[in-house]
Amino acid sequence: MQAAAAGQIVDLTAIFQAAFALVVGLDPAFLAIVWLSLRVTLTAVLIAAVIGLPLGAALALARFRGRSVVIVILNALMGLPPVVAGLIVFLMLSRSGPLGALGLLFTPTAMIVAQVLLVLPIVIALTRQTVEDLWGEYRDHLRSVGLEGMRAIPTLLFDGRFALATALLAGFGRASAEVGAVLIVGGNIAGYTRTMTTTITLETSKGDLALALGLGLVLITLTLAINAVAFGASRIGARYAG
Predict the structure, then answer these.
(1) Closest CA relative to residue 199, chosen from 217, 181, 211
(2) Cβ(33)–Cβ(199) under 8 Å?
(3) Region of residue 107 (left: phi > 0; alpha: psi -120 to 50; beta: else)
(4) Each residue of 176-203: pLDDT tens digit?
(5) For residue 240, what pLDDT is reported?
(6) What is the pTM (predicted TM-score) of this model?
(7) Alpha helix segments (H runs only) across 97-208
(8) Rounded average pLDDT over 133-155
(9) Beta carbons of 119 and 53 less than 8 angstroms apart
(10) How many CB atoms lie within 10 A of CB 159?
């Protein structure tokens, strides 16, 4: 038993060493996977922000019949299963689907669309809550300077920018950790649609733990770095704003 345990320790040590070598060795194939993952995720978050921030703010200020139902649905969609999102995009982009003529299935663009579908409800829902709270607090002041209804949206978004950064980070976390949707619509094609998460899944099943671990370390490091930068920027901004 002691010999078996020693063998396991040696194997784990070798795996960590191989993973570290992949990370610091700047292997082109390894970097291509990391770059594709970042490009897809950041593009999806940017698109979701451009669409979701104004929509969430508008929903916070608008009053119409069925508004509560819309809010409940949005909150529910925050937990939309990735495989369901992937299936929806797959059906839309498949040859028999309404957008099949575009030929986007099994491309990075299809992966971006799937991630936007996952991130957008998060951005809209969290933006609505933030802007609604700000409107309740500053309603009288904004009305006194002629900012009422949709005209108040730019001001409210600016005032809530630090809280909204957290919403975008939540969206980034959702997209960066996603596997099912991008696997369905991207096909996990080597050198073209293979991201960090899909590669980790594949290589773990194949037994190539060094590559899976190396990508896992990079993914964790990137997530921590982006969150640290956003947190630092918000603290600095809040200090100067205050």
Answers:
(1) 211
(2) yes
(3) beta
(4) 988 999 999 999 998 899 999 999 999 9
(5) 66
(6) 0.88
(7) 108-144, 153-159, 161-176, 180-186, 196-206
(8) 87
(9) no
(10) 19
DSSP 64-93: -TTHHHHHHHHHHHTT--HHHHHHHHHHHH
Tokens of 185: 């619509």
* Third-level CATH fold of 29-194: MetI-like fold (1.10.3720)
The whole-chain average pLDDT of the chain stands at 88
Domain ranges of the chain: 29-194
Phi, psi for residue 140 in degrees, rounded to 5 = -65, -40
For residue 151, what are the CA distances in angstroms to 48, 99, 134, 139, 155?
22, 36, 14, 12, 8
Q: Could you report the per-residue pLDDT of 61-84, keeping only the tens digit for each? A: 999 999 999 999 999 999 999 999
Q: Check residue 117 and report its DSSP letter.
A: H
Please tell me the predicted confidence (pLDDT) of residue 163: 86
* 155-170 residue pLDDT tens: 999 999 888 988 899 8
Give the angle subtended at the CA of 83 by the CAs of 72 and 116, to the nearest 5°: 65
Phi, then psi, of 178 in degrees rounded to 5: -75, 140
- Do 36 and 194 meet the contact criterion of CB atoms below 8 Å apart? yes
* CA nearest neighbour of 115 among 32, 176, 53: 176
Which run of H or E residues covers position 219? Answer: helix 209-241
pLDDT at 16 > cutoff 50: yes
